[in-house]
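Moderator note: this is an archived Q&A kept for reference. The question asked for a predicted structure of one protein chain; the sequence and the answer are reproduced below.
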Amino acid sequence: MDWDDLRIFLGVARGGSLAEAGKGLRLDPATLSRRIARLEAQAGAVLFLKSPRGYALTEAGHRLLPHAEGMEARARAGVAALAGDDSLRGRVRIGAPDGVANHVLPAVLTRIRASNPDLGLDLVALPRVFDLGRREADLAITVSAPKAGRLRVRRLCDYHLSLAAHRDYLAKSAIVKSRADLKDHAIVGYIPDMIFDADLDYLGEVGAVAPGLASNSAAVQLGLIRAGGGIGVVHDFMLAGAPDLIRVLPGDVRLTRAFHLSRHSDAGGPLITRAADLLAEGVRAEVARLEAAATES
């Protein structure tokens, strides 16, 4: 296939519509439509589902996508080599649970981009599992290691969680001397039927009752706890930025989990590989830094 045709394909796949793709490619929608039709004829397959809402990749389009991205990455690497520049160019989408997305990744991604100004980074923060097979993200951070699908998975690092509450809540509430005392306290946690990963079922592990205040978002749970809503399980890397919170039963309750980084086995090329390495290195360093800061505070 001609690279120029694949460039058109990538523009439409990423833009989701002819009008949006045309802004970056500097081509009008009619021209793009003809080029896509020609590419589909050459490929002998329909690559996009067309609707009034835009263009969505078909299964055939999803199969072509990593190969087109690989060609794009190789072309950019060649240009960079000629220029003596090894910084990353392109765009990478990262999916992550909202806790790590809000409290760890901002610093990590900012540092990565500072060293790679031609690299675009999209951070999708959602409390659910990302479908890498359908290219919802190029890289996904998860708690449990995915077991289904054609994925490459690496363990990033361990992280820790503690019971915590606002100092004002604890000042006016019964003293917590043991896990059994938690039954007499307001509890903040996940909405039970919206826990998307078994490793996030913290309350059962610490022996707490069902939450009175609940959210599917770790960041919202932190907000509820900081507002005095009760006792909840908080990531230690979040505690570094919440000096108003006090650990509860610190000698008894400290949970350990791990972050994993996944990519689809077909999502290759030097761009994704190097971005994954930088992301892994950055997450490990930032979690360690924040947990150390929380311990000192």
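Archived answer notes: Residues 9 and 36 are 7 Å apart (CA to CA).
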